[in-house]
Write a structure and sequence with these properties.
The protein is of the alpha/beta class and about 500 residues long. The chain has 18 helices and 19 strands.
Length: about 500
Amino acid sequence: MSKPLNILFISSEVEPFAKTGGLADVSSALPQAIKELGHEIRIMMPRYRFISERKFKLHDIIRLKDIPIPIGKNTEVGNVKSSFISNLKEKVQVYFFDNVNYFGRDGIYQSPVGKKDYKDNDERFIFFCRGVLETLKRLGWQPDIIHCNDWQTGLVPAYLKSIYASDPFFKNVKTVFTIHNMAYQGAFPVESFDKSGLPKDHYHQEGSEAYGKFNFLKSALAFSDAITTVSERYAEEICSSDEFGAGLNGFLAQRKKDLRGILNGIDYQVWDPAADDSIYRMYDAKSLEAKVDNKKALANRFKLPYKENTPIIGAISRLVDQKGFDLVLEILDDLLKLDVQFVLLGSGEKGVEKKFEAMQKKHTSQMGVFFGFDNELAHLIEAGSDMFLMPSKYEPCGLNQMYSMRYGTPPIVRATGGLEDTVEDYSGGGKGTGFKFEAYDAKELLKAVQRALKVYQQPEEWKKLMRNGMTKDFSWEHSAKKYVNLYKDILKQ
């Protein structure tokens, strides 16, 4: 093997310390997979107040205390604590950048009470981005690659190409920036730019400015050495259409040669029906009859009558515009006229929750809902459902469709982003892993469900579909190898 690389992976959320969505899962699983390939990778994230020092065995690093970080005309001080994440094979060191003023709060991006973004998110992540680079200097550990994720880390590439450009410590450091969702860009008023300390000549259309605002994501797109996103299809979509590119598609198209789509993996230590403590009964592709016990347990959990030949359609989602549950509401009455049951685990817009709650009261024997998040229930829905619904308007990668296939629960998805890349549409003769529909339209979704129901009525054919999905390989090792190849490519430039 060639010389191992030094990689710093930075993210605003990392499982198990802090999580709002899939970014946290990726920020835990991908570094561990890269470490297993023999590279030295470390993680850095903010230290939010709710990250328990005792539970996670955080300890101070004496030489990383009182690091001064300029924010506009003021100076804030950062301290670094350290811990590890580990799987059965490897341990990865995690640095936590701590400052009570900015991170001593109960939420990551917004207050858990009013669900409004913190007004100083610009300062919080300016502080974090500069803190990352100042910590590396104080630590004296030189990465070959700094791998940044989403807008909260977007200023790191911009700093390296400006304030730190003549610093010999960073002379050979390259940056990779991964877009997990183009819709979240970190756009702030022009005054925020002055707080960043970036040179004024960075604030223009080819740099950190977009539509009259200081845009953290755009800063990363302008100054990173390479850009990735989390599926090949999404990489195409964000360059070619305003709908997916959220206003930055034209700019991204100019950097298309530096953009790669690399599919997220799933963690098979966590998501494996043959070794899952969260489900009622474990099973694999050779013991599909045991899946039925999970279906009974799921029906029981939602107080639905168990019916052997009536399929349960499951869904786990944030109830936000992106996820397509407006389509589900539009067809729900028609859907429940069919011989199906529907269970939903989700949270999000209160108006959407209320509509689902009203529908559940109307169809008590066919429908169950749980608002909030419950990890054990998420596993049981994957194991106990017969099919899984993901009608997303857009989906950069998506993980639940991969979990579903792993659990022998064919997904019904809209053909967009990672859903298009990972699900093979059923085409008869036992071929395929799920069902896709193209147009973002409620009638098309209903047709896809009806198509799935027809195949479900042919048990032998359905079992082929289940096994096809269960034997697919979506391991993180695949993705990790692709990232390492990318790192090596840009280090040659």
